[in-house]
From TrEMBL:
Protein species of origin: Arthrobacter terrae
Domain ABC transmembrane type-1: 95-300
Family: Belongs to the binding-protein-dependent transport system permease family.
Protein name per its UniProtKB record: ABC transporter permease
Annotated localization: Cell membrane
Record's bilayer topology term: Multi-pass membrane protein
Record lineage: Bacteria, Bacillati, Actinomycetota, Actinomycetes, Micrococcales
Amino acid sequence: MVVRLAVNVVRFIVTFFVATVAVFALMRAIPGDPAQISLGVNASPELLAQTRREFGTDRPLIAQYFDWVSGLPQGHFGVSFVTRRDISDMIADRVQVSLILVILSMIVALLIAVPFGTLAAVRHRRTSGILISGISQLGVAIPGFLAGIMLVVVFAVGLGWLPANGWTPPGQDFGDFASRIVLPVVALASVQGAILTRYVRSAVLEVMSEDYLRTARAKGLGKLEALVRHGLRNASIPVLTVTSIQLAALIIGAVVVERVFVIPGLGSMLLDAVGNRDMLSVQSVVMVLVAITLIINLIVDTLYTVLDPRIRKQA
């Protein structure tokens, strides 16, 4: 198990640094001079040269890359070309907001998917099972930002029950935080919950056809009891894989939802940086999103070893 964990950590490190090269190269492939964008078209050549020295963009690309990547392990991302603020401080403020939104959304999505997906599998030939499958299929077809707009129209504008947008830190006013986080969490969780419900249904249906579950039922256990005692752990392995993929997708999907609800998270920071052509901020935020995704995959690979005795035996 230790060897497998070490291999996963090495894979994480290698993938991360390959991603840094790819992101840096793509950012430099975008036309435009950061100094010219920052100062405007009427800037003098002397001022442009001075600004390029301040930004470090007058140095060779390989030197710029190593300047940037050497600071990543310590959380040093450099200074924004536009706001002239430390990017690390901005990311530290924004990432907390995004993680709160994403984690709450995934918890709610799993609370929806696990019971309803299991029920849809157990009752797959009955009206209730068919109805759950149909609703989940409809949920898959609705993008998160559209669900957010619909929720705002109904619950904020129409009924006036909840605020339409904005953000309050939970430590400042928890009641206001709770009221403002409901709609974005529901917007993200409803879509992810629908997707995960279908995967839970498929995984449980596959487990229900296994011989060991039929044996358990032959010994006198009911369908649901046999499934809970002997089947759900095996069904959790493919669901765990899909959950990790959807969690990564949820992080990316939160970018647009944050803009819809005016939430100051990483997504809003990324969109602002793209609009301002703030190249260094864009590549830093993208690398943070990549790092979060890779950490999720590392955790899931470790959980595989815990849940699946076959992998544990091989390790």
